[in-house]
Amino acid sequence: DKVQDLLKKSGISIATGASLDLNNCLPENFNLETDMVVFAIGTEPNTKWLSNSGLNFKNGAIVVNESFQTNLEYIYAAGDCCAVKDIQTDELTKSTMWPDAVIQGMMAASAICGKKVVYPGIFKFLTTKIEDTKISSCGIIKAGMGKKLVNVVKDNFNYCSYQLDDNNKLIGFFAIGDVKNLGKIKKAILAKEEIEDINNLI
Fold first, then answer.
1. Contact assessment for residue 127 and residue 182, using Cβ atoms and an 8 Å cutoff
2. pLDDT band at 65 (very low <50, low <70, confident <90, very high)
3. What is the gyration radius of the CA atoms in the chain, in angstroms?
4. What strands, in cross-sheet order, belong to the sheet with 125-130?
5. Exposure letters 97-123 (e unless 16+ CB within 10 A, then b)
6. 2 in Cβ contact with 176 (< 8 Å)
7. Would you call 43 helix, strand, or coil by DSSP?
C-alpha cells in the first residue's frame, strides 16, 4: 500500500484487480491518455512449449541442480526460466532478477564445458527508485514466515519494517527512503545474526 501511495503521489495512476485483453485493455471507467502502451505482466517463465519435453518443473520453472543441469543429462537451464535454491529457505524458487541471470548463465556455460561449478542459491535483494525516493528490500518479508514483523520510523526513513525469526535473528528488511547500511543489513541476514535492536544497523 505504501508503494502504491508513493506511485500515486508521483502522478502515476494504478488499477488493481483488473483483467486486460487486446480488445479492452483498460478496466471499466478507467481512462488514460498516452502516447504508448507497454504490457509488462508478471514474471512467469515461458516454458509451456516444453511441457512434453520430460523436464521437471516447479510452478512452471525448470528444476535444476547446483550446476544448472536439469533432470535430462545434457540439458541445462539458467535465468528466468529456472527454479533454483533460495539460500534462506533451501526451497526451490523462481529466479527473476537479471544480475542472478547473468551469473547463472556464466556458471551454466562453465558447467557445460566440463568445469565443476556450485551455485549457492539466490538471496532476495532489490533496490530501486521512484523519482528521488529509494526502495530497498532483502530477505524474507512475509506474514507467517517469522517471529514478528516490526515497523520502524526514523528521521531518514519514510517507512521501514524488518522481520525476525523465532530465535530473534534478522531474516528480512524493507524500507522506503534512504538506507545507508543496507550492506550491513544484508550481511546480518546472511550470517543469521541475532538482533536485539535494528537501530544498531540502520
1. yes
2. very high
3. 20
4. 125-130, 133-139, 170-177, 157-164, 148-152
5. beebbebbeebbeebeeeeebebebbe
6. yes
7. coil
